[in-house]
């Protein structure tokens, strides 16, 4: 399915769709909030819909069940929850590391990075952004990055070539580049290991849901993690030791997760069977 979809067309149509939306809404004098919503709709709904609809209309025998199924996901759910917690812990310590590097020379930039995100568009805007963050983005981005990009680049290079290139592109799209890059690798391996996009989608949704929760619930109410979360300039130094410890532990756990998910995939690279789930013999 995804092997027949041209990644370059998807990239081109996305750029053109977003640019055209920006130009149109600027020409009609729309306010920034309306323009941002329109761009999000173009990026996450309009362009993906026409791209995937084009290929589905040419191949009526295709079925979503080929890449999306609830079968066999239950045993994975506890592991996915654990992976999300490790991923978030790693990303939070990466944020501290960025602040620790930036603050001595550019304190104003560190203060800017610590500024809380404000929602300028009222309740309706907040609901839309929440829907986009928790539902639309995980579904569309997994179909795009783990479906189209991973499959196409793996076919052109190798399995690990596809994983790394698609994860790099995923990282560039997000502010937390390192954390998002490793997140992309784990999501790619989840898909390759099971042939089921639903698992990386759930992984992505849970991660984004916890990120969204942090926007609405004061961090000091999360008493279990407040001891290493950085919210002020003073925290950068005061919580340095805690962040270093969490960084070491989360890095080791991330490496272990990637190793465990990648185990058994090596021999499949020559066959390019990247959407078939591993059998028990392959896992062993």
From TrEMBL:
GO molecular function, one term: metallopeptidase activity
Transmembrane regions: 9-31, 37-56, 76-107, 127-145, 181-203, 241-262
InterPro entries to which the protein is assigned, alphabetical: Rce1/LyrA-like_dom
Residue span(s) of domain CAAX prenyl protease 2/Lysostaphin resistance protein A-like: 127-210
Keyword Membrane annotated: yes
Keyword terms of this UniProt record: Hydrolase, Membrane, Metalloprotease, Protease, Transmembrane, Transmembrane helix
GO aspect biological process, one term: CAAX-box protein maturation
Top-rank lineage group of the source organism: Bacteria
DNA-binding is among the record's keywords: no
Name the record gives this protein: CPBP family intramembrane metalloprotease
């Amino acid at each position: 399915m995804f092997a027949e979809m041209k990644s370059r067309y998807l990239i081109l149509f996305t750029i053109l769709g977003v640019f055209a939306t920006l130009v149109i809404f600027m020409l009609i004098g729309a306010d920034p909030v309306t323009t941002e919503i329109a761009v999000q709709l173009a990026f996450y709904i309009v362009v993906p819909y026409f791209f995937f609809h084009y290929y589905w209309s040419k191949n009526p025998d295709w079925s979503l069940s080929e890449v999306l199924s609830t079968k066999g996901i239950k045993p994975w759910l506890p592991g996915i929850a654990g992976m999300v917690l490790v991923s978030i812990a790693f990303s939070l310590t990466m944020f501290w590391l960025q602040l620790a590097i930036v603050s001595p020379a550019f304190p104003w930039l560190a203060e800017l990075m610590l500024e809380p995100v404000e929602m300028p568009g009222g309740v309706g805007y907040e609901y839309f952004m929440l829907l986009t963050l928790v539902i639309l983005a995980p579904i569309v981005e997994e179909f795009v990055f783990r479906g189209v990009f991973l499959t196409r680049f793996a076919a052109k290079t190798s399995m690990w070539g596809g994983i790394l290139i698609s994860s790099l592109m995923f990282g560039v799209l997000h502010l937390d580049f390192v954390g998002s890059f490793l997140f992309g690798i784990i999501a790619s391996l989840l898909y390759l290991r099971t042939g089921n996009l639903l698992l990386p989608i759930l992984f992505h949704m849970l991660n984004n849901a916890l990120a969204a929760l942090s926007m609405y619930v004061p961090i000091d109410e999360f008493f279990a993690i407040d001891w290493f979360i950085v919210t002020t300039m003073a925290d950068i130094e005061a919580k340095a030791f805690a962040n270093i410890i969490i960084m070491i532990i989360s890095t080791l756990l991330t490496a272990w997760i990637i190793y465990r998910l990648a185990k058994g995939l090596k021999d499949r690279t020559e066959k390019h069977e990247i959407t078939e789930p591993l059998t028990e013999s392959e896992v062993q």
